[in-house]
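Hi R.,

Here's the chain you asked about this morning:
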Amino acid sequence: VQLVESGGGLVQAGGSLRLSCAASGDTICISAMGWYRQAPGKERELVASSTNAGSTYYADSMKGRFTISRDNAKNTVNLQMNSLKPEDTAVYYCNADADINTIVQARLVGVGCGFHSWGQGTQVTVSS
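And the predicted structure, written out as C-alpha cells:
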C-alpha cells in the first residue's frame, strides 16, 4: 500500500488545518487508516484512527479538536485539526494497517499484505 499525504503547513495557534491521505496499490489489505505524529526528540504517537467498520479512536489530547474521516470507496483518510496549539507541531504520518481478516481475503486473490504502511510525512507547524 502506498500512502501520499497533503495539507500540512504553518498556522497560528487557534487555527485549523486539514490533512489528507490517499492510498493506492494493494488497498484490499487495509483494515484501518489513521494518523500518527512525531515531534522533534519525541517518539511517534498515535493521533487518530478509523477502521473499515467505522470505529474511531482519538488520543486524549486530540479529543474534541481533531476529527478523522474516511472514504472507504476512495481509500482516503482526512484529519481535520481545529484549535491547534504549538505543542501540536510535528511531522504527521498517514498510516494504514492490515489485520488477519484483510490478509486472508487478500491472499485468496493472490495479494500479500504487510501489516503496516506509512506515508512520507507532512510537517505541521503551529506558531504561538
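Residues 100-108 form the longest helix (9 residues).

Let me know if you need anything else.
M.
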